[in-house]
Amino acid sequence: MKDSVRALAAEFKQFLSTRQEDDLTPAACSRAAAHMSEPPRTTATPERQDHLTVEFVRESKKSAKIVSSAAPVSEANTNTSAEAALIHDSSFSFKEPVMSDAEKQTLLNQIAEEIKACRRCPLGSTRLNAVPGEGNPNATLMFIGEGPGFDEDHKGRPFIGRAGQLLDKMIAAMGLKREDVFIANIAKCHPMVNPENPEAHGNDRAPNAGEIAVCRKFLERQIAAISPKYVVALGGVAAKALISDTNSLGALRGKFHTLHLDSVELKNPIKIIATFHPAALLRNPNWKKDAWADLQMVMAEMGLKRPQG
Fold first, then answer.
1. CATH of 102-302, one of 3.90.550.10, 3.40.47.10, 3.40.470.10, 2.70.50.60
2. At a CB cut-off of 8 Å and minimum separation 6, what does 257 contact?
3. Phi, psi at residue 294, to the nearest 5°?
4. Rg (CA), the chain
């Protein structure tokens, strides 16, 4: 005990010898004495400028404030300490912003206007109308084809010709309506064999890699905004582009894949299944049975039942 008192007295004497005259007021001396009576702290000394002391103080149930952590003062280490502390602080939570229905629709409208104004590839100069897509901004299911045809180019709406009429029947067979889903294409403008004659029927072709690359970012932003749980890729062109697989449609269909986007990070994973394009089913009705089997897989995942009658 006497040794402790002597050590404290020596430390206090050293403290007084380093103070200026103005520091020796009664109040200052009281603060100094109180300081000397405190137990030693484990904070870094002033000479150690390469460390800082941080502790996390919970201000309320809804917030966590960073005050100090023993970690080297480097950007990487400081961030690591802060992130680790926040993870272990049960009062801290992070939620991605959720858009309202109106905000979703506004964003989709904005993307549609950008598509209509786009001239980044030759299709923008030969089309009659861009075809952004349409449907429910909160759709659980999206149908994505390869590109608009004659009727779509003239009306500016997706899948409204003979292939679109068949797609409507396929959607109805699933127990849904066109208004329940969102319908779009990989290419947003009509790819034509002869661009100088947009009034000609049978002037359709598949979009090429360059055209797909230009339009892809628009489609990916639409997918991210809608955030569906399932996508049906109609035809080999859409399937290969969205599944990122060069295998044939026959090898891709009949099972679920994970949707891969290049320019947008998805909040939640999206399942995608490939099936035949309705135009192909019109040319070869024998494939309808296989296409229906693909749609039934989606129905089972979504808990849908085919309407009776």
1. 3.40.470.10
2. 243, 245, 271, 272, 273, 274
3. -65, -45
4. 33
Residues 35, 37, 39, 41: what is their CA dihedral angle, to the nearest 10 degrees? Answer: 20
Q: Which two tokens stand for residue 229?
A: 């749980």
Determine which helix (DSSP H) or strand (DSSP E) holds 284, and give its type and residue range: none
pLDDT digits (tens, 9 = 90+) for 126-154: 999 999 999 999 999 999 999 999 999 99
Looking at residue 175, the DSSP 8-state letter turns out to be T
Length of the chain: 309
Model confidence, pTM: 0.69
Cα gap 222→108, rounded to integer Å: 6
Q: How far is CA 47 from CA 20, 52, 193, in A?
A: 22, 11, 76
CA atoms within 13 A on the CB side of 29: 8
CA-based nearest residue to 174, from 138, 134, 209, 143: 143
- Residue carrying the six token digits 């489609």: 219
Contacts 24+ apart (CB under 8 A), 154-158: 154/128, 154/129, 155/129, 156/129, 156/130, 156/131, 157/131, 158/131, 158/133, 158/134, 158/183, 158/184, 158/185
153-186 pLDDT, tens digit each:
999 999 999 999 999 999 999 999 999 999 999 9
Distance CA(245)–CA(237), nearest Å, equals 10
Token pair recorded at residue 68: 């100090």
